[in-house]
Amino acid sequence: HSMKTKETFSLQIDAVFDIHGQGIIVTGRVETGKIKTGDLLKISGNNIELSTKCLKLQKYLRPITEAAAGEYIGITLSDVSKSQISRGMQLSSD
């Protein structure tokens, strides 16, 4: 089989927002890899692991479809609540 060239997406969560009508949005700087709208993700830390999906991406409050390492972005997540996520947790591709 061929070597995996795709670097795993990872981001350390800097802040968590619950925005009415939009859902849960986390912000942070992409550490490695890339993220696209629709990607399946996991949140880990504080002895928990949650599965989630990237519903929307934003950069400087503008919608984008993908982001790469070094970019500071906001990610709208599915199937999670604000109480489950805290600053310092890791978001990564599944």
Q: In percent, how helical is the residue content?
A: under 10%
- The largest sheet has its strands arranged as 1-3-9-6-5-10
What's the N-to-C terminus distance?
Answer: 20 Å
The biggest beta sheet reads: 6 strands, antiparallel, barrel
**What fraction of the residues are assigned to beta strands by DSSP?**
over 45%
Shape, per Cα inertia axes: globular
Helix/strand class: mainly beta
Radius of gyration: 13 Å
Write down the overall mean pLDDT.
94
Structure, explained:
- By secondary structure, this protein is mainly β.
- The chain has no helices and 10 strands.
- The chain has strands spanning 10-12, 15-19, 23-32, 34-36, 40-45, 48-59, 62-64, 66-68, 72-77, 90-93.
- The strands form 2 sheets. A 6-stranded antiparallel barrel has the order 1-3-9-6-5-10. Strands 4-8 form a two-stranded antiparallel ribbon.
- A hairpin with a 3-residue loop joins β2 and β3.
- The model has no long low-confidence stretch (mean pLDDT 94).
